[in-house]
Amino acid sequence: MSDSANVAVISQSGETLSFFDATTGQQTQLITDLIAEPHELCVDKHRNVMYISHAYRHGHYWKHGDYSHEISVFDLKERRIVDVINIAPYGGSHGIRLDAANDRLISSVEYGIGEAGGAIGIDLKTRKVIGSVGSDAKSHWIIITPDGKKAYTCNKTFDFVSVLNLADWKLIKKITLPGGSEELDISRDGKFVYVPAPGAQVGQNPADPCIKVIDTQTDEIVDSIPLAFGGSSVHVTPRGTIMVGQYNFKGGKLNRGHVSLFEPKNYKLLGDVEITDYPLTLRSSADGSVGYAANVLGGTTDVIDLDNMKVLRNFEVDTVSRADKGNMCQGAHGLAVFH
C-alpha cells in the first residue's frame, strides 16, 4: 500500500483550494479567494497545471444564482492561478475531464445550449472553446471514453443519461434512467460506464439504490449492482476496481457514509468501510491501493486503505458554514491526487 501523494481539495462554499500531504494528513497550502463556487478539479500532467470548474455565482445545484462562465487554470509548480478560461455564452461548468487523445478539456455545462446544457470542448493549446453539444438536460457530471470520441453525462434530476458524440458534436442517445443519476465513471478499457441511480434524495435513502452498467458499444444498460444505501459517486481505480460512495440518511438525519469496492468482472463486493460523512467525490492513488473521499456536507476528506478497507485518517478541509451561503457547508467538493 502506498499513499505518498499530494491531495488537493476544493471547498465550494469556502471558495478555497487546500493541499494536503496524504501520508500525514497535514495541510501544506491554502489558496483563498477563488472565483465563486469552485467545483471540480482536473490535473493536466503534461502542462503541470490543474483546471478548476466554477458552476454558480452563489449557491448549489438545488438553489443558486447566476451561472458562472469560467474555468481557472492553476499552475502546480508556481502554486497560483495563472489563467482563467472564459466559456461564455456557456455556463455552469461542473464535471471536467482531460481528453488526452485530442489535447482537449471536456466540460459538462448546465446552461447555454438550447434551453439546457450539455458539454463543451476546450483546445488546451489556445484555451478556447472549440465545440459544444446539447444533452437536453442540466448536465452535471461527465465521463469520456479513452479515445475521446464519446461522452456520457449524468443529469441528476433528469430521468436519463445523455450519450454525446464529441467528434461531430451531436446528441447520440438518451438512456432512460428513472429518478436521475449521480457521478459516473468508466472502466479502464472504456467498455462499460457505471452510473449511480437514482439521483440523490436529501433527507432520505432512495428505494432500490444501485449502479447501472452501460455497455459503450450498444449504449444499453446491461447490468445492475445493488447497493445498501444511496449511491453518490463512482470512481474506477487504476486496478480497475469500482469504488462506490454511498450516503445514509436515517430518520431524516445524515448518518455516516460508506465506501464500497467491487470487482470489475463479476461485480463481487470486495469490501465496505464506514466513513465520516457524505462522499461526494472519490479518487485513488496511482497504484490503486489508497482511496480518497471528499465529504461534502461535513467538510472533511477520508483516506482509505483499499486493500484492507479501513480508514487511515481524516483531514479537515473546511467545516465552517457561511451565513451568506444559507448556512449550508459544502466544504469538500472537487478532489485531485497527484505526485
Walk me through the structure.
By secondary structure, this protein is mainly beta. The chain has one domain: YVTN repeat-like/Quinoprotein amine dehydrogenase (Methylamine Dehydrogenase, Chain H, 7 Propeller), CATH 2.130.10. The protein contains no helices and 32 strands. The chain has strands at residues 6-11, 16-21, 27-31, 38-44, 49-54, 59-60, 63-64, 70-75, 80-86, 96-99, 104-113, 116-123, 128-134, 141-144, 150-154, 160-165, 170-176, 185-186, 192-197, 210-215, 220-226, 230-236, 242-247, 249-250, 253-254, 258-262, 269-274, 279-284, 290-295, 300-305, 310-316, 335-338. The strands form 9 sheets. The chain has a 4-stranded antiparallel beta sheet, with no helix packed on it. A hairpin with a 4-residue loop joins β8 and β9 (80-86). The chain starts with 5 loop residues before the first strand and ends with a strand. The mean pLDDT is 94. This is Surface layer protein. It comes from Rhizodiscina lignyota.
